[in-house]
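Trying the structure run again after the queue cleared.
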Amino acid sequence: MYNAITMQKDFKALAAVLAPDIPPEKLDGVVKPMEGLEAQFRPLVARIPLETEPSYVQAVHPEPSK
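Done. Tokens:
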């Protein structure tokens, strides 16, 4: 089994940088669900074998009309 080095994300700092329009008093409403999701996904990610290749998606957009 692959042991990944885990890093705790500071969702409050990320929200402050990526969405500065969220008022500080409402940050907990954004941060708490993110922390909960990460807590659920972290054990699942740890079970992914190292040799598993990441998924690759490429969106192809139509050419604009002239």
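The two ends are 54 Å apart (CA to CA). Worth checking whether this holds up in the mutant runs.
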